[in-house]
Amino acid sequence: MKALILAAGYGTRLRPFTEKLPKPLFPINGEAILNRMITRLISAGCTGIIINTHHLHEQMASFIKAQSYPIPVLTRYEPAILGTGGAIRNVADFLDNAPFFVINSDIVTDLDLNAVYAHHCGHDHPATMVMHDYTDFNSVAVDGSDFIRSFTPERIEQGHTLLAFTGIQVLDKRFLAFIPENQAVGSIQVYQSMLESGVHIKAYVPDKIYWQDIGTPERYRLAVFEHTAPEAFLNAFGSRLAISDIRRKQLKGDGSDRKWYRVSAGNHTLIMADHGIQTQPLAEVDSFVAIGRHLFKKGLPVPQIFLHERFAGQVYLEDLGDTLLYDWMTPERTEDEILMIYQTVIKELVRMTVLGADGFDPAVAYQGPVYDKDLILEKECRYFVDAFLNGYLNLNKTYQDFSDEFSRLADLALENGVFGFMHRDMQSRNIMIKNSMAYFIDFQAGRIGPIQYDLAALLSDPYSVLPDAVQDRLLDFAVNELMNCRTMDRKIFLTGYAACRLCRILQTLGAFGFLTRIKQKPFFNRFIPVAVRNLKKDLTGTRDQFPALNRTVEEAAERVGQIFSTRLDV
User: Fold this and answer.
1) What residues contact residue 91 under an 8 Å CB cut-off, 6+ apart?
2) Domain end: 195, 213, 231, which one?
């Protein structure tokens, strides 16, 4: 028994991802789809496999050469794509007189290939097509005796059923006689000719198989989920489950493009974060996993990561419930309750700044290894000008209007910084409360930097507004906690804290402008007045240092007040 695996296509529906990696090499649970099929064919008794290639054929050939298969596995490059029929004729010299498999390279299945081959050998027809009931692809008419009747049925004849062709077929060498010479031709076109000539094509319709076509990003990611979710539950809870036992429900999104799901089976639940398909060398998902595992290993309050599929961008996490600090902060909370929970958060934050820095690998930070001047100027100050002042408020300002002041602000933040691990988005929607304990999520932007930044982000958070007096008490509490575990100058720390607050609020307003206007996420719009009021307040007394910024923020506050019909006095 030999086999041809069809792998010459461009993967058009999977662009732009297939511009860098050919579709057959997309991984599922760490294993290339092509390798999965090769392994299944070998297990079924295949004695030789040939793979036709075209798009990114060098990668395909290199992949095959790097493996150690117990049977010959070859690639054959097609300078021009020949179609399925042409590809079969092109490898005729590789085939012997026995029936052979022809299989698409973009399918994932648990089909018993031995049973398919035995079924074909049990009849005297030149072709067996494996069919499957899959609503999205059901387009081939099969009669009650399991013969193919039409590939383009205008109506369903009595006794016929529409089924999907799985891309798996067993053929005799007699099939070659129906393939036109010297032209590209698809197998369905050949099959049509066979039917018109009165030749019978047998259908093999197995019971209850798993089959998935990964021709689109959505189908690929679904196939990955269906294979990784059982493994994630095994890793987390020690029980092996079938995918049919597992349910997933999409959760409310955040400011990113990620999708979040709660995955459940019985009394057990996990959270799955879907970052989307990744082709860049270092992506957000890489930082998310590496930083999350580093912090968890240090005993810090972050969710445990049980499994991830890097290329698909899927990560399975411990489920910490549904209560964000943002949700916990209801109007009924007393000041004492607020102080107590924020002190809990700050104690853990202090631990994270110290323990998180120990052994942290800066190379895993995908936006840069450290919080430095370039990051402040580009990702916070310029972001504020481009996305908020101009993009949201249409104030027609230029970065150069403030370049000297932004440079001065960045220097203040860094020269007075007390360095450690920084989360860089420490706000109430990234803190979860479970059993009166605080847990940090969304740590993928973590890096080494001034630890004042996270504290500034927490206390100036526009999502959960803290009264000034409470902020002052919490700031004093935080400084005392820090001084218990590291040596630092209180005055220098507070100077750096004030500068970091300004940097953080600039970044926040840039993000709110971008998310509201570009990403069309109106949820964030409502917090803009609070953030502008915070910026005005924090700039009080800095007119000599930042005159242009002060004037512009006054103008911005007036414009925001008009938009929201409110006064932004401080």
Assistant:
1) 4, 50, 52, 76
2) 213
* Helix (H) or strand (E) segment spanning residue 306: strand 305-309
CA distance 86 to 99: 18
- Residues 427 and 506 occupy one common structural domain: yes
C-alpha–C-alpha distance, residues 279 and 276, integer Å: 10
Do 278 and 130 belong together in one domain?
A: no
Which residue type occupies 483? M
- Nearest residue to 57 (alpha-carbon basis) of 73, 32, 78, 83: 78
pLDDT digits (tens, 9 = 90+) for 481-503: 999 888 889 999 999 999 999 99
88 and 24 within one domain: yes
Q: Looking at residue 76, what DSSP letter applies?
A: E
Report pLDDT digits (tens) over 200-222.
888 898 988 888 888 888 889 99
Specify the CATH number for the domain of residue 361.
Answer: 3.90.1200.10
The pTM for the full model equals 0.86
Question: Which residues are within 8 A (CB) of 555 and not within 5 positions of it... i.e. 6 or more apart?
Answer: 395
The answer to whether residues 360 and 502 belong to one domain is yes
Assess if residue 491 is contained within a domain: yes
- Whether 157 has a pLDDT exceeding 80, the answer reads no
Q: Which residue has the tokens 């000041």?
A: 335
Coil vs helix vs strand at 34: helix
Q: Do 180 and 89 share a structural domain?
A: yes
Residue 130 has pLDDT above 80, yes or no: yes
> 43 and 130: one domain?
yes
Tell me what pLDDT residue 342 has.
97
pLDDT in tens, 237-257: 998 888 888 999 988 877 677
Residue 297 sits in the same domain as residue 393: no
- 46 touches 1 (CB < 8 A): yes
| Share above pLDDT 90 across residues of the chain, in percent, rounded to a whole number | 64
Name the residue range of residue 227's domain: 217-318
Average pLDDT score over the chain = 90
